[in-house]
Amino acid sequence: MFKKVLIIEDDAMLRSSIVQALELEDLEPIPTNGFTQARRSIRHNFRGVILSDIKMPDHDGFDVLRFAQTKDAELPVILLTGHSDVPTAKRAIKEGAYDYLEKPCPPDEMIDALLRALRQRELVMENREIHQELEELTDGTSGSLAERLESHEKRIIEEALSEADGKVAIAAEALGIPRNTLYDRMGKLQIVAKAFRNGADQKN
Q1: How many CA atoms lie within 13 A of 171 on its CB side?
Q2: Rounded to 5 degrees, what angle do the CA atoms 160, 163, 165 make?
Q3: CATH fold group of domain 4-135
Q4: What DSSP string describes 60-87?
Q5: In angstroms, how far apart are the furthest CA atoms of the chain?
Q6: Cys bridge to 15: 9, 70, 97, 201, which one at CB 3.0-4.6 A?
Q7: pLDDT tens digits along 137-163
Q8: Are 73 and 67 contacting, i.e. CB atoms less than 8 angstroms apart?
């Protein structure tokens, strides 16, 4: 499970309190005192979420939100706001913030919001990794997913036939499939067994 929480809060006492609350829940807080210090941690592959105050001296929560969106539009940003800033926080939601928490925020409410955001982030990153693995399997072959998977299947069969010196029965055994199934797939993928044979033997 993802556990990293980038905390952007200029109030030292509140920042320390948030850190303690997160550590009690076995989360991994990354405390910073403002946007300038935090920005180095905001990356496309950040395996966590952001918890940021809205009102800060140099840069506000909207600066954090906009910067995070330039790095990764799916990186969850939760905003901390005072009661008078709730309308502002709601506007931030419309602009892409994951959620907002009104200060002072009960620890259990904050933890619940962070855990939901972390689960979402984990799903997003897992989905990206799956797509990347598919791309690597197909070596960047263009076309639909079905076409790319078919290309990958063809390469596996051709490698098995090459190692089996073009003998379908041996290749089928190595692949763990019935010989008739392999013949069927070879026909559909236009693979000829004799093309993988060495020497003078040209029998099917």
Answers
A1: 28
A2: 110
A3: Rossmann fold (3.40.50)
A4: -HHHHHHHHHHH-TTS-EEEEE-GGGHH
A5: 87
A6: 9
A7: 655 555 677 777 888 889 899 989 988
A8: no
Cα 13 from Cα 2, distance rounded (Å): 26
pLDDT tens per residue across span 72-93? 999 999 999 887 778 888 888 8
Number of Cβ within a 10 Å radius of residue 161: 26
Distance CA 118, CA 99 (A): 12
Ranges in the chain annotated CATH 1.10.10 = 140-196
Asked if 145 contacts 134 with a C-beta cutoff of 8 angstroms, the reply is: yes
The C-alpha atoms of residue 23 and residue 20 are separated, in whole angstroms, by 5
Q: How far apart are CA 12 and CA 142, in angstroms?
A: 52
Closest CA to 69 of 51, 90, 96, 93: 96
């600066």: which residue's tokens? 63
Domain with CATH 3.40.50.2300 in the chain: 4-135
